[in-house]
Amino acid sequence: MSDPKPQKSDLVILYHRQPYEEEVKDGKTVFKENKSPNGIVPTLKGFCARAEQGCWVAWKEVAPKQQAKFNRRVTIDDAYGSYDVIRLPLTAEQVKSFYHVTSKVAFWPILHTFPWLFNSEDADWDGFKEVNRLFAEAACEQVSDDGLIWIHDYNLWMAPHYIRQLKPNVKIAFFHHTPFPSADVFNIVPWREEIVDSLLQTDVIGFHIPRYAENFCGVARALRGVTLGEAQDVQAPMVSSGMALSEPTVTPYVEHGDRRIMIDAWPIGTNPSLIRDYLSRFDAGERAAEIRNEIGDQHFIISVGRVDYTKGAKEQLEAFDRLLSRRPELIGKVKFMMVCAAAAKGMTIYKNAQREIERLVGSINGKYGTLGWTPIMLTMRPIPFEQLVPYFRVANTCWITPIRDGLNLVAKEYIAAQQGGPGALVLSEFAGVAVELPQAILTNPYSNTSMDQAIDQAIDMSREERIERSEALLKTVETWDIEFWSRHVMEVFDNLDASKKKSDTGETPKAA
Ligand code: GDG
Predict the structure, then answer these.
(1) For residue range 142-191, what is the model confidence (pLDDT) as tens digits?
(2) Rounded to whole angstroms, how far apart are CA atoms 210 and 216?
(3) To the nearest whole number, what is the mean pLDDT of the chain?
(4) Could you confirm whether domain 9-269+483-499 is CATH 3.40.50.2000?
(5) Ligand 1: distance of its center to the CA of 156 in Å?
(6) Of 169, 350, 427, 509, which sits most exposed with the smallest number of CB within 10 A?
(7) Is 46 near ligand 1, meaning CB less than 6 Å away?
């Protein structure tokens, strides 16, 4: 389809999800704000809207017969401003192969260090590359000559390769939302060289924490012999030693041939002022009071995650079973609310995880429940963020124990909703966010003993200690919030501009 708008974009964001929700009203499709005004999508929309003619590229499932007349471009004018969205029409077959199978079945376990779940036969590598090529072409059609293409996440690993072929001089940034595993795990992927070569076509690669950046640099050095820039000390709030994911230093750039690729390790923040605003609303206060009323004086534990073996729901339920068996005095005195949003249709890989959760919840409720008391309240429907916040406010303990997690924004949201109140956070050492939040009750989800000690500690902790920790955590979450991250990213992008200009005049680009 020809492009009705010749104007080029300074910033093109490639993110697999569309930045709005579609609803059909009276036979017409209307575009609505996402139900969750938190998280990464609104932040990226903000970037898009601030840019000179920002643009977002996502995919949309469209039946083959409808593709010819499908309107790829929509202009969104929302609370964030005005920007265009290019929807790449993919067939159901392509969505399944690219997203559900190759990304989620094949690569997801590698990224999260579950290598025994990886089978290269699961991956449709050619199909994956084809979709990445479509994203790259759409981005290149859209971007201005001195614009920036900002690619999000591993399912677009190969986009830089295709973009560089089409636009040798455009600036490319890449942000990795998941962990980046160590070379021992990453190198299991048979297409490792192609992936690393593609990432080395970018100008900057962002990760949440130094460990993932160092893992990437290690892979690039082992496979492609890149030269590493001189390591720099990691900065507050990230803890530099003594934790499962801590690193004392971080590599600021790698050099490969005549290219220098900046490496940036900075965790995304949450939006504490939005959460504060929600809580100051009368209905939120009322809702929190209602929840507290229903719970009574039980110790209220909340956990929020998706159905995904990496999120550790099974291990958590087993720990809860042990808790009630080890400490029968808690029967009738604790309530565990598990919010575990079921995966989208077509994700066969998550079916087993979901069945296991349902089985365990049924078994625990059957084992300990009475007519008047059910230990676990499981919800598999996603809860809109606004409705989640009052639960965060009321919960005595937030239990976040993924086996692996790139960052985990829920932990930060709980802290923000507590506003320094007496809520305890039990947090896996293997969630990226742990290196920012050492005052949480840290636990190792691979160890039953550690999981048992952590939940005991949360339940038994004095109010004074809870408040002391909660206040320290709040300081971190409020200081390094989403605004801070956005400013940091803008600075990184501005430095790219500066180093590009220097290289155009023949000067060697310097590290930021
Ligand atoms: C990936 C990485 C990384 C609202 N209702 C529900 C729900 N929400 C909101 C939460 C939170 C967001 O969804 C989930 O964010 P997370 O960071 O916890 O997790 P992923 O979706 O796995 O995101 C992750 C992130 O990218 C950002 O880079 O932190 O490591 O895996 O804002 O409030 N979430 C769930 N159920 C609901 O009902 N699960």
Answers:
(1) 999 999 999 999 999 999 999 999 999 999 999 999 999 999 999 999 99
(2) 10
(3) 92
(4) yes
(5) 19
(6) 169
(7) no
The closest-lying atom of ligand 1 relative to the alpha carbon of residue 384 is 5
Return the number of other C-beta atoms located less than 10 Å from residue 327's C-beta: 16
CATH number for the 272-479 domain, one of 3.40.50.2000, 3.40.50.720, 3.90.1010.10, 3.30.1380.20?
3.40.50.2000
What's the CA gap between 122 and 101, in Å, rounded?
Answer: 7
User: Which atom of ligand 1 is nearest to 432's Cα?
Assistant: 30
Q: Do domains 9-269+483-499 and 272-479 have the same CATH topology?
A: yes
Looking at ligand 1, which residue's alpha carbon is closest to its atom 21?
306
Residue type, 388: L
253-298, pLDDT tens digit by residue?
999 999 999 999 999 999 999 999 999 988 889 999 999 999 999 9
Ligand 1 centre distance from Cα of residue 305 (Å): 7
Q: Measured in Å, how far apart are the chain's first and last C-alpha atoms?
A: 41
| Average pLDDT over every residue of 193-202 | 98
Q: Are strands 397-400 and 424-428 parallel, antiparallel or unpaired?
A: parallel
What is the residue extent of each domain of the chain?
A: 9-269+483-499, 272-479
Cβ atoms of 336 and 303 within 8 Å: the answer is: yes
Q: What's the gap in Å between 306 CA and the centre of ligand 1? A: 8
pLDDT digits (tens, 9 = 90+) for 108-155: 999 999 999 999 998 999 999 999 999 999 999 999 999 999 999 999
pTM here is: 0.94
Q: Whose CA is nearest to atom 28 of ligand 1?
A: 177
- Among protein residues, the one whose CA lies closest to atom 20 of ligand 1: 408
Q: Decide: 195 in ligand 1 pocket, CB within 6 A.
A: no
Cα-to-centroid distance, 397 and ligand 1 (Å): 18
